[in-house]
Write a structure and sequence with these properties.
Structural class: alpha+beta
Strand content: 25-35%
Number of domains: 2
Order of helices and strands: EHHEEHHHHHEEHEEEHEEH
Distance between the termini: 41 Å
Largest sheet: 5 strands, antiparallel
Radius of gyration: 20 Å
Helix content: 25-40%
Length: 275
């Protein structure tokens, strides 16, 4: 278990009490954002219709306390919740078993804020590979309801020490508005791996690792394609800077020679500039 401290600056001078509505709004963002950050790392998408996997629910089973303007959240590590997934079988190499869902939540939150030109803070180079999608940004926008309850700022004292203010809401709103619409693509790359657990696969395209999701369970024929060049036809989803975040498909096949030449380049959509 790890304990996190979140300092909540409010207009209320009573440091030992907190509004139930405020707490509900804040915990919703933290809980749903933590679920989304985990799924984004493993599936390439933060939300999907239906209930999340059980291990994601267990990873966001938090305990809380409040004292002196600080919210204390106790969170289990990934290894503690399901050791069979993270220790024995290593089902999710994208995740570190020693970290918690809150760690990944803070990572995604920080990169969304610090990478924006609207921010006066700087993002560390080591965080430059972290991503967020439109659905996760919409969860972050839920901080707006927290600030409507008389909150001035929210400061995560552990980890990267990110601070959320009312100005952060403008960043989330702008990032949401510039994410390109999904579009159909064809792409050729090396099928690095597949995972039947959540129907995800990794595709290497010109040294770029692309996360994919199959609409159907993988066939035995797909198993034989691992390590080979494949053609994937599906819907591409993008980040706010126009890079492909994931591709959702029901067609993975061996390409013809002409298709290899045509579809080896990743599309890059031009997103609107943040001003």
């Amino acid at each position: 278990m790890q304990t996190y401290k979140i300092e909540i600056e409010t207009i209320n001078t009573d440091y030992q009490m907190i509004s139930v509505t405020l707490l509900q709004s804040l915990l919703w963002v933290i809980t749903e954002g933590s679920k989304g950050a985990l799924r984004l790392c493993t599936e390439g998408r933060s939300t999907v219709r239906g209930a999340p996997p059980q291990w994601v629910k267990h990873a966001t089973n938090f305990s809380i306390a409040f004292k002196d303007k600080k919210l204390y959240i106790q969170s289990p590590t990934l290894q503690e919740i399901t050791p069979e997934l993270f220790q024995q079988n290593n089902e999710f190499p994208e995740l570190s078993s020693e970290r918690t869902s809150l760690d990944y939540f803070q990572d995604s939150l920080a990169i969304a804020i610090l990478s924006s030109p609207l921010s006066n803070q700087k993002v560390e180079a080591s965080m430059s590979n972290l991503l967020y999608d439109k659905a996760l940004l919409e969860i972050f926008y839920g901080f707006n309801k927290v600030f409507q309850q008389g909150v001035k700022s929210i400061h995560f004292l552990n980890g990267n020490g990110i601070q959320i203010t009312p100005d952060s809401i403008s960043i989330f709103r702008k990032l949401i508005s510039i994410v390109p619409f999904p579009c159909q693509i064809k792409i050729v790359g090396i099928l690095e791996s597949i995972r039947n657990y959540d129907r995800t696969f990794n595709l290497v395209v010109n040294d770029y690792l692309l996360k994919g999701i199959s609409k159907n369970m993988f066939s035995k024929e797909t198993d034989t394609m691992i390590g080979k060049e494949v053609l994937v036809i599906g819907i591409a989803y993008f980040t706010s800077i126009g890079k492909i975040l994931r591709i959702e498909t029901d067609k993975i096949m061996i390409p013809e020679e002409r298709e290899k030449k045509l579809w080896k380049k990743l599309p890059l959509l031009r997103a609107e500039t943040i001003e």
